Structures are given as C-alpha cells and as structure tokens.
C-alpha cells in the first residue's frame, strides 16, 4: 500500500486539535479560510508549534489577489520570521504577476528569507496561464509541493488537468490536490491520479448559536469547522487506498 499523507487546513485552536486528534499527517495553519486562507496570528502559530506533527503556516497578508507590492513583501518577511520563531516546520507561499504568471522574483525573495523552512506553493498556481512553466519555476526555487485544484474551483472537477500537471512535474515536486477533497470525492481522485498527499479542510457546517452575535455582524449565520471524525474518516480512506 502507498502511504498517502493527509494535510488538513485549520484556522483556530479547536480546528488544530481536531486535526491532530483525528490523525492528520500535516497541518496548513491559516486564518480566514473563508477567503482562501490568510496568515495566522502569532499566538496561533505559537500554539501550533507545540503539536507533534509538521505545521506549515500560510503566508498571505491580505485577501484578494496575489500581486504583492513592497509593503506586502515586508509584511510577509516578518510573518515568515514569526513562523520560524514559533518552531513551525514550513511556510505556504505564492505570488503572481498581473498577468497571472508566477512572480519568480518575488517568490525567490520569500524563499530565500524562509531558508531552512519547508516550502509549499499555494493555489496562486491555479491562476497561471501555463502550468508547465509554473512547475519549472517551483522546481527551480526548491518548493517541496504544489497545492492545486487543477485550475478549477474544486480539484475533483479537474482530474484531467491534475493528471497533466503530475505528468509535467515528473516527481521533481509533489502535486497535492486540494479544494473540494472530501471522503465522498477522494476516491475519484485516487482512481485517476498518482499522488502521495492530499489537502482537505475536513470541515462540517456549524450554524451560529447566538442570533445577537449574528445581528451585530460579529459572526456569520454559519461557518465551517474542522471535524475530528471527518479527519479520521478521510485518513482511514487514504490508508486503505491500494
């Protein structure tokens, strides 16, 4: 059997504990998963630094695009320093040019600053006009893996594109499918793709329980929360994969 690793993205302390207790192999630590994930707080990084599995911090200073100016870059370097100080295993990076291509210069600056930390290229990759070109950039810069949905909203909707990306990568960098990967959809991916790791939120819908908080705009009517049983079930499915 192939050991397929499960990376779970979390955004708070409860999610972190649920992912660890459920058997996740690695954590992608974020805030604001509702907008694709932003840099987690230093406090959450410090807490995550105490768990016994690898934790990679998302480094993304704001929502929106991945075209970063000098101020954004300054912030991201400080955030990388915070991840290192917290004892995290790695960081999750991405940067785009206005035309959607990866910004190799910006990424090199960030990668150099993150020296000694593990590196994941995030879904800025899904915006590129040429996957093959972006893979070469990722390989040249030393990324360990690329998190991608194959350019679609959900990875299960882009299996053909993902297969092409995996072929182009030629085992030089891991291709990790993510977005829409659940217990119900992962079988379709595994039947078509040769992968060593997958990425999932393993989350369930969590309705707000205080109407007053909703009315004042402090919380949304519902949110998603990492679920320990969902993590355990998906990990079991991956363990059983032929």
Describe this structure in words.
The structure is a single chain. The protein is an alpha/beta fold and about 240 residues long. The chain has a single domain (about 5-240), classed as Copper homeostasis (CutC) domain (TIM Barrel, Alpha-Beta Barrel), CATH 3.20.20. The protein contains 9 helices and 10 strands. The strands form 2 sheets. Strands 7-6-5-4-3-2-1-8 form an 8-stranded parallel beta sheet, with helices on one face. Strand 3 (about 55-60), helix 3 and strand 4 (about 90-95) form a beta-alpha-beta unit. Helix 1 (about 15-20) runs parallel beside helix 9. The relative contact order is 0.16.
Please write out the topology.
Blueprint lengths: L4 E6 L2 H10 L3 E4 L12 H7 L6 E4 L11 H16 L4 E4 L10 H10 L4 E4 L9 H11 L3 E4 L10 H11 L4 E4 L8 H5 L6 E4 L2 E5 L3 H5 L6 E5 L1 H12 L3
Parallel strand pairs: 1-2, 1-8, 2-3, 3-4, 4-5, 5-6, 6-7
Antiparallel strand pairs: 9-10
Strand percent estimate: 15-25%
Low-confidence stretches: none
Q: How many strands, which pairing sense, and closed or not: the largest β-sheet? A: 8 strands, parallel
CATH classification class: Alpha Beta
CATH architecture: Alpha-Beta Barrel
Q: What's the average pLDDT?
A: 95
**Number of structural domains:** 1
Question: SSE order, as H and E?
Answer: EHEHEHEHEHEHEHEEHEH
Strand order of the largest sheet: 7-6-5-4-3-2-1-8
CATH topology: TIM Barrel
Number of H- or I-type helical stretches = 9
| Relevant CATH superfamily | Copper homeostasis (CutC) domain
Share of helix, binned:
25-40%
The structure class reads alpha/beta
The Cα radius of gyration reads: 17 Å
Per the principal axes of the C-alpha atoms, what is the gross shape? globular
Our measurement of the CA-to-CA distance between the termini, rounded to an integer number of angstroms, reads 5 Å
**Strand elements, count:** 10
